[in-house]
Specification:
Blueprint lengths: L25 H17 L3 E3 L9 E5 L5 E13 L2 E7 L2 E10 L2 E7 L5 E7 H13 L10 E2 L2 H10 L1
Antiparallel strand pairs: 1-2, 2-3, 3-6, 4-5, 5-8, 6-7
Bound molecules: zinc ion (ZN).
Zinc ion binds next to helix 2.
Length: 160
Amino acid sequence: MAILTIIKDGDPTLRKHSRPVTEITPRIIRLIDDMRDTLKKSGGVGLAAVQVGVLRRVVLVEDAEGKVLELINPEIIAREGEQHELEGCLSVPDKWGITDRPEKVTVRALDREGKEFTVSGEGLTARCFCHELDHLEGILFSDHARMLTEEELEAMTEEE
Ligand code: ZN
């Protein structure tokens, strides 16, 4: 188990496409375990392997119950409704923006045993699924969000 370094916006790796996992090797399991540690320490709710510099289609998403879902080769298979809420990213520190996302999404993925499963999420969890899957295509939320201004950020910090 190890805490990995989260790379930041400006690092060209974040712009690359992640490749599917073709075989769940001990190396992939170790990556997932290290990503779990890294996510826990970061205080975030989601992490894609590319954010720790590994171009593989592996993401973690913390669900509404606080359980960390492990998704290998995830795909969004259904979208419903819409939401326009605040989003941030561990790779885009201290910046926040309002994104357009579906209110509910269903994702199909493999677990660490290689078994296929589907999982649905609403609200923050749905945003998180979309956000992490975007990372696999080299997309950052700041590419399409309406980013908060300095004033808006300050107002938000004062509220806390
Ligand atoms: Zn992110």
